[in-house]
Automatic annotation (TrEMBL), chain A:
The lineage of its organism: Bacteria, Pseudomonadati, Pseudomonadota, Gammaproteobacteria, Oceanospirillales. InterPro entries: BFD-like_2Fe2S-bd_dom, BFD-like_2Fe2S-bd_dom_sf, FAD/NAD-bd_sf, FAD/NAD-binding_dom, Metab_Enz_Cyan_OpOx_G3PDH, Opine_Oxase_asu/HCN_bsu. Residues 8-321 form the FAD/NAD(P)-binding domain. Keywords: Oxidoreductase. This is NADPH-dependent 2,4-dienoyl-CoA reductase, sulfur reductase. CDD domains: GlpA-like_Fer2_BFD-like.
TrEMBL record, chain B:
Keywords: Oxidoreductase. It comes from Aidingimonas halophila. InterPro entries: 2Fe-2S-bd_N, 2Fe-2S_ferredoxin-like_sf. This is Sarcosine oxidase subunit alpha. The keyword Oxidoreductase applies. It comes from the Bacteria. The keyword Oxidoreductase applies. One of its GO terms (molecular function) is oxidoreductase activity.
Length: 464, 99
């Protein structure tokens, strides 16, 4: 794999968590290496903010808030490596070994400590027709908007649940391409939940006011919002031509060429799992989260910060990055008391910011039986084209866990390596076997966690 | 199926070759975004089962945007930025992505 590169600290991911951690480390005299798959720093929320394409009136203010962080990151002395994918990792007694692939090829790294700041991905949520061209995730649409100022030519239908769905709808309205309608799977009654979570509601008033303003703006723009949509389907010969939705006791139909869905975000699991961090099911967030202690440490030499450790939003990710950096600093210095104070302040702010989460989780809670209520023909594994019916039959024939189901059906064996079907499989087994997801578990994740080309694979094989 | 909004800032363009045809696209786009911009999603890629597929997540997870870039097949088009003179070929054969 070529020569062995060394560093004191490696950070994987240059979103708010990774950037904040790197900046804090440089302040303590350490020059971390930062690997990120993207072309520029920023992660998901601050994508393209280094050379912004859309203005603040279209993006909303949260986007431009990231400019200070990006500025500090670009000025600090950091070994920042864009277009670099970490495809392999292994904990060792004296550090962590990493496999990295970039334009120059594959390289092998040994670092003393590592921070995973790999962020989140959109939750995969199967419904009939979700694999057709014309069905995309709302985050994908937002990426097109940030990267190129691209918006749909024909008015789309937005469906699903959660803040990102409304953010995109609001951005599209501002850009003059209001959605045809919003199919919100959240029942209307849930939007009254803040009355029951007063503390969380007060701490999170910023989010709630923003959300309420967006909904009002959408209503003013004449975008119909249907709360409490219970089922969804996309149909068309070679691409999406219509969406069908079950609402208020009936199926409704709407012609459209584009349906953009969003069902929340979950931690990107691949690298954390591949290096052996244990993951636990979180009831509130309805997904697996890595186990970490108060210092955000997950293994002896590994820390996890940001949405990759649990969904907390961009500001929380930044704070976690800084907290993790403080905890990673081992060299004793004479500013111990200052650091303690800094740490306490960060922990307090973080607690305040996270106080709204139980409310948001309760508001946007997804129906856990959704998948088991879909028709048998619904694809669960998009890569290997494994349908819900095939999975059900394999379970009946004795496939008792995710790995067995994989071996029986090839579910999760395609190029995405189970990212898009992993938690669906856990959910399905949990419903069918009436066991909690924690007991069902998840696929065994093995490297490479990022796809390598044949040439790259050959290069790793010659001297591995 | 996607268009640029008038309010977006002026960005430089680059010339790429999409299935042999020269097209000018904004330099900030990924390969996947560029193909959606030029051709739409109907013929982005053909899957192993013969059906049409198109990018779904655009952030490196779903692998639906696999495409041939400068002769190398099965690249994730969403992770690669367009560059002057880049050659892009859509994988419309239907059996290539099972790697
Ligand atoms: C598609 C999408 C859009 C979003 N849009 C918004 C928004 O508009 N507003 C908002 O408030 N929140 C948004 N969020 C939530 C937002 O992601 C978080 O609040 C915040 O970005 C989390 O920061 P982070 O640093 O933890 O992770 P991220 O910002 O996700 O950064 C993680 C980085 O790690 C990189 N990475 C992951 N794995 C590897 C690897 N193996 N090798 C190399 N690099 C790797 C990724 O490419 C990415 O750049 C969005 C989330 C998603 C998934």
């Amino acid at each position: 794999m070529g020569e062995l590169c060394q560093a004191e600290i490696a950070i994987i991911g240059a979103g708010p968590a990774g950037m904040a951690a790197a900046i804090r480390l440089t302040q303590a005299g350490i020059r971390p290496v930062v690997f990120d798959m993207g072309n520029a720093p920023g992660g998901q929320i601050y994508r393209q903010l280094d050379v912004p394409v859309i203005g603040e009136t279209l993006s909303g203010t949260d986007y431009y808030r990231g400019r200070d962080l990006l500025g500090d990151f670009s000025r600090a002395d950091i070994d920042y490596r864009p277009r670099s994918q970490v495809w392999w990792g292994q904990c060792e007694s004296d550090g962590v070994s990493l496999g990295v692939v970039d334009a120059a090829g594959v390289s092998r790294w040994h670092v003393k400590r590592m921070l995973l700041a790999t962020g989140s991905m959109e939750r995969s949520w199967p419904f009939p027709g979700w694999q057709l061209p014309g069905s995309m995730q709302a985050g994908a649409a937002q990426i097109l908007f940030k990267e190129g100022g691209l918006v749909p030519e024909a008015s789309p239908v937005l469906a699903g649940s959660g803040p990102l769905l409304y953010l995109l709808a609001w951005q599209y309205c501002r850009a003059g391409c209001a959605p045809q309608r919003i199919l919100d799977t959240t029942p209307a009654s849930r939007y009254r939940l803040p009355l029951r979570y007063l503390r969380g509601a007060w701490q999170g008033r910023h989010y709630l006011v923003k959300g309420a303003r967006m909904m009002l703006a959408l209503k003013r723009a004449g975008v119909p919002i249907h709360h409490g949509v219970e089922a969804l389907e996309a149909t068309g010969k070679h691409r999406v031509e219509r969406v069908h939705y079950y609402w208020r006791g009936h199926w409704h139909h709407q012609d459209t060429s584009l349906v953009l869905t969003h069902f929340g975000v979950v931690p990107e699991p691949q690298l954390g799992r591949a290096i052996g961090i244990p993951y636990d099911w979180h009831e509130g967030q309805q997904c697996f989260l890595p186990e970490r202690n108060r210092s955000l440490q997950a293994r002896t030499r590994v820390w996890v910060a940001g949405d990759g450790g649990g969904i907390g939003g961009a500001l929380n990710a930044e704070r976690e990055g800084r907290l993790a950096a403080l905890s990673m600093l081992t060299i004793p210095t004479n500013d111990v008391a200052d650091r303690k104070r800094e740490r306490r302040r960060l922990e307090q702010r973080r607690a305040t910011d996270l106080a709204v989460r139980p409310l948001l989780e309760a508001m946007f809670r997804l129906p856990s039986h959704w998948l088991s209520e879909q028709p048998d023909t619904t694809l669960v594994c998009r890569c290997e084209c494994v349908s819900l019916g095939e999975l059900r039959r394999a379970i009946e024939q004795g496939a008792a866990g995710p790995n067995q189901l994989k071996a029986f059906t090839r579910c999760g064996m395609g190029p995405c390596q189970g990212r898009e079907c992993g938690e669906s499989v856990t959910r399905l087994l949990s419903t069918v076997q009436a066991l909690p997801p924690q007991e069902i578990g998840y696929y065994q994740v093995r490297p490479p966690v990022q796809a390598l080309s044949l040439g790259e694979l050959a290069a790793t094989a010659t001297d591995a | 199926m996607f268009q640029r909004i008038a309010e977006s800032s002026v960005i430089d363009g680059v010339d790429i070759q999409l299935d042999g045809e020269i097209c000018r696209v904004p330099i900030t786009l990924s390969v996947a975004a560029a193909v959606l911009f030029i051709k739409g999603d109907a013929d982005y890629r053909r899957h192993v089962d013969g059906h049409a597929r198109a990018p779904f997540c655009l952030m490196g997870c779903c692998h639906e945007c696999l495409i041939t870039i400068d002769g190398e097949p099965n690249r994730r088009g969403c992770l690669v930025s367009v560059a002057e003179g880049m050659s892009i070929e859509r994988q419309l054969g239907g059996s290539q992505d099972d790697g």
